[in-house]
């Protein structure tokens, strides 16, 4: 599958996730209750559909997966807590993307030993400025 299709799928589900997060924030559950229930349901779904694919060896891969799980917990809880604020979720996610986008782009160029061209650097700077204007 082409990488742009992956980007589209991630964008669609991220929008849905933000929408559901905001809907849940208007209910009677706390952010901790929502996040805990979310992870329980995720675990049950994983066991039902992927039990044979679970990695049981306590090696480097396991600990990297553990760190990834901790990261998802922090992101989920933070998003759910932020949804309780009386502020546009677009501002919160927009600012996080303006921080995330240039950093991850730069880190991935280093990871793949690629050089960043002047055109790509200008693109990163312009994307930061455009997000700044969206937020102001």
What does this structure look like?
The protein is mainly α and 136 residues long. The protein folds into two domains: 1-86, no CATH class; 87-136. Helices cover 79% and strands 0% of the residues. The chain contains five helices and no strands. The chain has helices spanning 3-25, 31-50, 60-83, 89-111, 118-135. Helix 1 (3-25) crosses helix 3 (60-83) and helix 2 runs antiparallel to helix 3.
* Secondary structure tally: strands: 0
Task: Count the domains.
Answer: 2
Helix content: over 70%
The shape is globular
pLDDT < 50 stretches: none
Compact overview of the structure:
The protein is mostly helical. The chain folds into two domains: 1-86, no CATH class; 87-136. 79% of the residues lie in helices and 0% in strands.
